[in-house]
Design goal:
Elements (H helix, E strand, L loop, with lengths): L12 E2 L52 E5 L5 E5 L19 E6 L2 E8 L13 E4 L12 E4 L17 E5 L6 E5 L19 E4 L5 E7 L14 E4 L7 E5 L8
């Protein structure tokens, strides 16, 4: 084992500062680190969004007057009659929404929201929204786009309580804050940059090398346990209550 770890109040173990999921002070930064090793090109950021020729679903003015670019399928968008429903209003189809909006699934129904492309900064305004919402349209089609959404706190051990289909619950702050975000696909041990590069139930951690690691349940909490080879479940300063992260000893490579 590495440096001694102090007992954690919920029966788990709080990781020490030598662990690969913390910086020198024992704290974690949910963003990309300046000295992080570059991602392999095969794992680099993927441009999800597809744009129909001459029609931009993020714009209210990319179609002739009185029309808007309507998002209607996995990558399909075409000019059609403009709707009048505003951001946040209930809808049954994207054609109900005003230009620049589409009808995304919200619970059992749909709501108009601003269309955006993940990784494109500054498109969602300055009211706290970010391009983190799923691209699932009201009819269940998973589009190649996403939508602007306000942060939604969630339970990393039970994301279905707050998150929509196609989303995961991710740790997004050094104090254990969480948010529903479009789900990534990278597995345990895969390189990552953003939290939601990883599949739901995982966290992107590390300093010189950032990898996806399993979020686990501590003590008597119900939830996932560490699989063989993933180390032991340790709580850190950024761990939500009752959870930890499967950690292999940073010095020996053993539990």
């Amino acid at each position: 084992m590495g440096a001694a770890s102090a007992p954690y109040s919920d029966g788990g173990v709080r990781g020490d500062a030598s662990a690969p999921w913390a910086d020198a002070s024992g704290y974690w930064d949910g963003g990309a680190f300046a000295d992080a090793a570059p991602l392999d090109s095969a794992l680099g950021p993927v441009e999800l969004c597809q744009m129909a020729s001459g029609c931009d679903p993020t714009s209210a003015v990319s179609c002739p007057e009185a029309e808007s670019c309507v998002l209607s399928g996995a990558g399909a968008a075409s000019c059609g009659a403009a709707g009048a429903a505003t951001d946040g209003s209930p809808c049954a189809a994207s054609s109900d929404c005003a230009g620049g909006l589409a009808c995304f699934r919200r619970g059992e129904g749909g709501a108009c929201a601003r269309v955006c492309c993940p990784g494109h900064e500054g498109v969602c305004g300055d009211d706290g929204t970010a391009c983190t919402g799923t691209g699932v349209l009201v009819d269940g089609t998973d589009s190649t786009w996403a939508h602007c959404a306000l942060p939604r706190a969630c339970n990393v051990l039970a994301p279905e309580e707050a998150c929509e289909i196609g989303e995961g619950c991710y740790i997004v702050s050094a104090t254990g804050g969480t948010d529903c975000q479009r789900a990534g696909t990278r597995g345990v041990g895969d390189l990552c940059v953003e939290q939601n590069d990883c599949a739901p139930g995982l966290s992107c951690n590390g300093i010189t090398r950032r990898e996806c690691a399993r979020i686990c349940a501590l003590g008597d909490a119900e939830g996932p346990m560490c699989a063989p080879g993933e180390g032991e479940c340790r709580a850190y300063s950024h761990s939500p209550d009752g959870t930890g992260i499967c950690t292999i000893d940073s010095t020996t490579g053993a539990i």
